[in-house]
Amino acid sequence: MILLVDLQEPFQFEFFRHALLAATMVGALTGLVGVFVVLRRMSYIGHGMSHSIFGGAVVGYVAGINFYVAAGIWGFLSALLINQTTRKRQIGADAAIGIITTASFALGVALISRASSVTRNFDAALFGNLLGVSTGDIWVIAGVLAFTLFVVFFLYKQILFLTFDSEVAPVYGVPAGWVDTVFSLVLAATIIASIRIMGVTLIAASLVIPPVIARLVTDRFAVMLVLSSLLGAVIAFTGMFISYYFDVASGASIVLLAAAIFALVIGYVTVRNWIRFGRPVAGTRKLTSAESQALFD
Amino acid sequence: MAERDNQGYIVRMAGLSAGYDGRPVVSDVDMAIRPGEFVGIVGPSGSGKTTLMKVILGSVAVYDGTAEVEGRPVSLRHRPSVGYVPQLETIDWNFPVSVEEVVLMGRSMRSGFWPWPRREDKIEMMRLLDRLGIAQFRRQHIRNLSGGQQQRVFLARALIRNPRLLILDEPTSGVDIKTRDDILHLLVELHREGVTVILSTHELNAVAAHLPRVICINRGIVADGRPSEIFTTEVLRQTYGGDMVVVKQGGMTLVADSPHFFDDAHSHDEPPKVLA
């Protein structure tokens, strides 16, 4: 009974109700989009784009432009620039992302150091903060979630084919350039919508951990999509209470909870496969270096 | 079909030069393939086999000359409707997809807006999986299949498009002799049904045994004709840059590496051991 009363306590604050709703939607959104990020081996892009968008947000703030407009334009242009640069064979994808996104992040940092009054706001942008989530923010997140669900539902077959076999899908008529552009738009929108809750530095983990946990327990793409979205939502919902009660940044509490669940699931799968196959990790796949970085950094 | 092409060719290249990033991989290629032919392309690694196939698929930039499929010019913007089986080495075997999901990808642009497959697509998929002998694995993850079964899954994905032209990039690579033989017999069967088949391979003896026509390439066409006629020491030297022995006996053509006589060297040291 005491526990129930305690859990109800934060609901008396409007900021918490807003933040909880926003975080749950952000968790579902990043869980859903993260499946494609992980399977396309784009974890590093998610990490880089969030840093790039930070630069755009600061430029927008200094120039007096709306956060979503500035971050949106900057994010979309960064995604297109990354796509174009990675098509050059002489430059590796990781190098291209590293150059473009860190340059953008550095621009944001440089502008902040020139205007010390904005530092406090951007601490929240870096690590996430459950204070100050407005009704407008909730509508933006809901809009991005609805748009993403629409895209995934109606382009499901094409995105699945392109994600699985990017070489053959265009041969069979899948408009790869167009689908990639839509996906870049979805990814940029997801990161922008999530930035206030998760923080720039922690978004990549929320894009990677739920899909990786889902991948550990299923071999089916559709199940992975649903499971990853549900996990993202539940982890974010629970993480917000942890953030409230322990007075920890919301992004950090969500990511720490996700990492703990990941550790439990990988431990369970390892032991299960050890018993079943006589070796520790059969049936699970090796993480890419970018995924490992997002999980353990 | 072939009626569209006045010359009666399903694939035709003239003075073709194609490659990547402005650098041609193949040059001066003249080639014509009629509907219903079964053609093998052989050559060393990096000789342009895959590039030539990608020209037909419209995936590679053409720098000079022309490439036509079914009488229509092919380019990065105008891709022909063909069935394509890529090298299995390019597949991510940990991707969470089942056999039936992979096969149905072949219809992803023809099966409406809904994310689930249409009934007729599922019926066609089952018919193909039955024919290829892998229907019992349809719900399995692709990683759990043998090399030959995996090859059939990707063949089914190509065939579900009902292609008149089927292109396979090294379909016999990395499989055992029995599986290789099964795959080639299956392709012969499809060829007899009227499908034009073009495949690349390193298996010269398999080509000689199963295919009526072979094209030897090394950044350009070295020879083109029946295996029994063009598999000669000279042609293979021009193609591979090394000496090979060609044995022709009883209507069979066999290609072997030039012996290095290690046995002679060995015989001076110690006598051979016979375990059986």
What are the main properties of this structure?
heterodimer; A: 297 residues; mainly alpha; 13 helices; 0% strand; B: alpha/beta; 6-stranded mixed beta sheet; 4-stranded antiparallel beta sheet; 12 strands; 31% helix; globular; disordered N terminus
Topology of helices and strands:
The complex is a heterodimer of chains A (about 300) and B (about 280).
Chain A: H1 2-8, H2 14-39, H3 43-63, H4 67-86, H5 93-114, H6 119-127, H7 135-154, H8 156-164, H9 176-198, H10 203-217, H11 221-246, H12 250-277, H13 289-296
Chain B: E1 11-20, E2 23-33, E3 38-42, H1 49-57, E4 61-69, E5 72-73, E6 83-85, H2 99-105, H3 119-131, H4 147-159, E7 165-169, H5 177-192, E8 196-201, H6 204-210, E9 213-217, E10 221-225, H7 227-230, H8 233-240, E11 244-249, E12 252-257, H9 262-269
Parallel strand pairs in B: 3-8, 3-9, 6-7, 7-8
Antiparallel strand pairs in B: 1-2, 1-4, 4-5, 9-10, 11-12
Description:
- The complex is a heterodimer of chains A (297) and B (276).
- With 297 residues, chain A is mainly α.
- Chain A contains 13 helices and no strands.
- Chain A has helices at 2-8, 14-39, 43-63, 67-86, 93-114, 119-127, 135-154, 156-164, 176-198, 203-217, 221-246, 250-277, 289-296.
- Chain A is globular, with a radius of gyration of 19 Å.
- The termini of chain A are far apart.
- Mean pLDDT of chain B is 84; it is low at 1-6.
- Helix content of chain B is 31%, strand content 26%.
- The longest helix of chain B has 16 residues, at 177-192.
- Chain A binds chain B through residues 39, 89, 153-154, 156-158, 160-161, 163-165, 167-174, 215, 218-221, 223-224, 285, and chain B through 20-21, 57-59, 79, 81-82, 84, 86, 90-92, 94-98, 101-102, 104-106, 108-109, 111, 113, 115, 141, 161.
